[in-house]
Design brief:
This protein is α+β, with helices and mostly antiparallel strands. The chain has one domain: Jelly Rolls. The chain contains seven helices and nine strands, in the order H-H-H-E-H-E-H-H-E-E-E-E-E-E-H-E. Strands 1, 2, 3, 4, 7, 8 and 9 form a seven-stranded antiparallel beta sheet that branches. It is globular.
Length: about 250
């Protein structure tokens, strides 16, 4: 029964959503995510509302990437501004009304590379092209640097979130041999908001040595046919530190 439900969730229902339900969405942002897998809105988030310097006070950037957990008081300010800008309604249109969020970090990429030649034999990496193995789920990046084409962009294969995927272990979600020419390169600018469905194939090996930072937030719907459901929600809240979206909106 579990395998049948898993198959239905990953195939029939998701394809119905991506290919038909989005026709009835009147908000441009969720329709664009449903069509392409991502959406970028330029120079819209008021970054002055929180003290970013306390998260970005690096003495050097001698690392591949680093995460700093956003304090809950700052997180509430971020979410309330996303709500004022209409992005919470976008998430509800796309994921449903019952949403949990997690990660909630400021992620900084440093000046070290991570590519196929730097991986150890048998090692898998989040820098390989991949999907996240969670089904329909949304990440938001709020870009914290001026646009620079020498930094590492978000790599995304447009429409790949709608392709039926079957995976049984972590390695099945990695696509290290996909040519980089198949990806859109999404470069943010200061205050840009980028939303993308992590079920699509994204990321690529990091060859840039120019640092950049984003606010990274992850959103996932809860329900009978979702990955998050009553059978695992308690364990996932403990494991991922998930918070109900409504609790973070002032």
């Amino acid at each position: 029964m579990k395998m049948i439900k898993r198959f239905i969730n990953r195939t029939i229902l998701e394809q119905l959503y991506y290919n038909f339900v989005n026709l009835f969405l009147f908000n441009d942002k969720p329709r664009k995510i449903s069509r392409d897998g991502f959406c970028q809105i330029s120079n819209i988030f008021p970054l002055h509302v929180i003290n970013l310097q306390k998260y970005l006070n690096y003495k050097d950037f001698n690392f591949v990437d680093d995460r700093k957990k956003i304090e809950k008081s700052d997180l509430k300010i971020v979410f309330s501004n996303l709500n004022k800008l209409g992005f919470i309604s976008t998430l509800r249109d796309y994921l449903g009304n019952n949403i949990y969020c997690y990660d909630n970090t400021i992620r900084t990429l440093g000046n070290k590379i991570s590519n196929n030649s730097t991986l150890q034999p048998g090692e898998t990496s989040s820098w390989q092209p991949h999907h996240d193995g969670k089904g329909k789920r949304v990440k938001i990046y709020i870009w914290l640097n001026k646009k620079n084409l020498n930094t590492h962009p978000l790599f995304y294969i447009k429409g790949s979130h709608k392709v039926i995927k079957n995976w049984y272990k972590y390695e099945d979600t990695r696509y290290k041999d996909i040519d980089i020419v198949n990806f859109d390169k999404i470069y943010g600018d200061y205050g840009d908001i980028i939303l993308f469905d992590t079920h699509g194939i994204h990321s690529h090996f990091k060859n840039s040595i120019v640092p950049r930072s984003v606010i990274e937030l992850t959103f996932e719907g809860y329900g009978f046919f979702n990955r998050l459901n009553k059978s695992n929600i308690s364990d996932e809240i403990r494991r991922l530190g998930m918070i109900k979206l409504d609790e973070l909106i002032i």
